Amino acid sequence: MERLLPQIQSPEQLKALDKKQLPQLARELREQIVTTVAANGGHLGSSLGVVELTIALHRVFSSPADKILWDVGHQAYAHKLLTGRQEQFPTLRQWQGLSGFPKRKESVHDVFDVGHSSTSVSAALGMAVAGDILGADDRIVAVIGDGSLTAGMAFEALNHAGHLKQKMVVILNDNEMSISRNVGALSSFMSRKMTSDTFIRFKKETETLLNYIPGIGRDLVGIAKRAEESLKSFMTPGMLFEGFGFDYFGPLDGHNLEDLMETLKNAAQIKGPVLLHILTKKGKGYEPAEKNPAKFHGIGPFDPQTGEVPAPAAATPPSYTEVFGRTLVDLAATDQRIVAITAAMAEGTGLKPFSQTYPQRFYDVGIAEQHAVTFAAGLAARGLRPVVAIYSTFMQRAFDQVLHDVCLQNLPVTLALDRGGLVGADGPTHHGAFDLSFLRSIPNLIVAAPRDEYQLQRLMKTALSVDGPFAYRYPRGKGTGTLLPEEIEPVAIGQSELLREGPDGLLIAIGSMVQQALAAAEQLATEGIDLGVLDARFIKPLDRDRMIALAENAPFVMTVEENVLQGGFGSAVLEMFSDVGLQVPVIRIGIPDRFIEQGSQAQLYDSLGLNAEHMATRIRKLVKLEERHQSAG
Ligand SMILES: Cc1ncc(C[n+]2csc(CCOP(=O)(O)OP(=O)(O)O)c2C)c(N)n1
Ligand SMILES: CC(=O)[C@@H](O)[C@H](O)COP(=O)(O)O
Ligand SMILES: [Mg+2]
């Protein structure tokens, strides 16, 4: 049979297909998505789940004049394939390849850059309002998942759109899944289907209640209670959205193309805000992903025939995430005050074992980073020791909660920031490049970063012993394979560790970059350049006296961090030297003042000079310059 997908290079060509050809196109889209994600890794289940929706949207609406906004954007692979990007699709998520998320600079069909969740309704509303102001005759559609709907920002936008009575279409893609099973009262409410059972019960109970009415003196409280319960079971998701001022359609089978197209056509005619609620299956059409949607939410390369991920080499060290998760379980065994919190990332943050060992002390709050932090503040205010594990990039959302609700009151909340630094293929939306800068600006907060897994354990234990807020950040990926002793020794607050002594220059590094600095120093030692290497361990407070003493005798200081240079660790060191009037040449190595694209972590480090080889090259030049100065003098 002739393949259809290669013939569709634009939404216009999709519109020209016969309706009967669409199921075949859906199959081909799924095959292409599975093949590419199996090779490159990526977000599989969500994209497979919206194949029919994507076809229907591009048949009914006219992108790019009409604007389609994808929430998070991890489900937009079929959209990319139908909007002229088939040729580049094999480069998905690779260095200089197609982004895994919608990107305005990639295509006119990608109308809003995204990667963090729950922004689609706000952005769509802005675009719809702008369209009115500009007199544009276009239609705006936001597609948001049930997981992303749990974030406050989505409700802020619904509230505003309903108030404005703004013409726009919001599609709620309900697969009852976030990364893992969706959680929360809203999710339970949404999944309550209007079954015929509900109707029958409602009818029966109403009749019974009516029978009671002539008999004055019966149990009125009981009657009222039963009436309320009947009403509650009669409440539907539609009522919720209608309460927000939206016209509600659904729930609708999101894999039924005919129904989808018909309903979308009708929805597009309505003058005010419309919410179309569709039910889909995450991973649809690829059995391993249907069976295990959490595993196939975001996955590395795998065998497309079996869905199996290649086993890691036997000697592969555990990831920082795994060490964090396991250590928290151990620490919680002897400290009943420990409570763990995740914002819809139990797997990603390594908290799954904790949730299984201590279900009563574990909270998945949904995609609600701001709430997670203030919830932790509440727990801490009553004497508990909450540990909030959030990816560095998503913690950006909760800056004010960290500042206002935790640090202002000096509450003992531990902030565990996973994915600190460059994360790789997810790219600029997800790099944890800013945390050291924004956290170090907050009073009372201790900020640290470990150089290896054992140092992470030490910081974890230390954080729980401090009577105030404490943040540590650690990178994505494997640890160094360092030995993890039985007994974890805490660290003195603000204490650095001198790993190497040498008169020719001083490297002060933090977190993941300590290993690179050490490797550079060791390489240079073989060439007769003898450097000191200090693991700062803390960004705040800095180990002031030791750093000053070492720097006073060094021909130069090089600071190294996997964080933006603006306001980061190197800046902190410079400020301190300046405050005491210490004059020493300081070279800062870190992430430059621009958004960093996707690629493997190794490619990114290399491109930014954040590895031992590049550091060694810079130091060689510096030392030669220094020698030239000396001989000239
Ligand atoms: C602010 C923020 N927090 C967390 C995430 C991580 N994340 C990406 S997708 C996802 C689940 C989204 O669920 P849903 O919107 O229902 O989409 P589905 O994957 O089910 O299609 C989460 C938690 C994120 N991208 N942004
Ligand atoms: C889309 C999204 O935000 C998450 O799925 C994220 O991509 C997970 O990243 P990790 O693969 O680092 O857990
Ligand atoms: Mg979902």
TrEMBL record:
The molecular function GO annotations come to: 1-deoxy-D-xylulose-5-phosphate synthase activity; magnesium ion binding; thiamine pyrophosphate binding
Q: Which cofactor does it need?
A: thiamine diphosphate; Mg(2+)
Q: Superkingdom, according to UniProt?
A: Bacteria
Q: Which Gene3D superfamilies match?
A: 3.40.50.920, 3.40.50.970
Record CDD domains: TPP_DXS, TPP_PYR_DXS_TK_like
A cellular-component GO term for this protein = cytosol
Enzyme category, top tier: transferase
Q: What is its EC number?
A: 2.2.1.7
Pathway membership, UniProt: Metabolic intermediate biosynthesis; 1-deoxy-D-xylulose 5-phosphate biosynthesis; 1-deoxy-D-xylulose 5-phosphate from D-glyceraldehyde 3-phosphate and pyruvate: step 1/1
- Which chain positions lie within coiled-coil regions? none
GO biological-process terms attached to the record: isopentenyl diphosphate biosynthetic process, methylerythritol 4-phosphate pathway; terpenoid biosynthetic process; thiamine biosynthetic process
Bound cofactor: record note: Binds 1 thiamine pyrophosphate per subunit. Binds 1 Mg(2+) ion per subunit.
- All copies of the Transketolase-like pyrimidine-binding domain together span 318-482
Binding of Mg(2+) occurs at D146, N175
Would I find Cell inner membrane among this entry's keywords? no
Return the HAMAP family for the record: DXP_synth
Q: What is this protein called?
A: 1-deoxy-D-xylulose-5-phosphate synthase
- Organism encoding this protein: Pelovirga terrestris
Species classification: Bacteria, Pseudomonadati, Thermodesulfobacteriota, Desulfuromonadia, Geobacterales
What gene, per UniProt, encodes this protein?
A: dxs
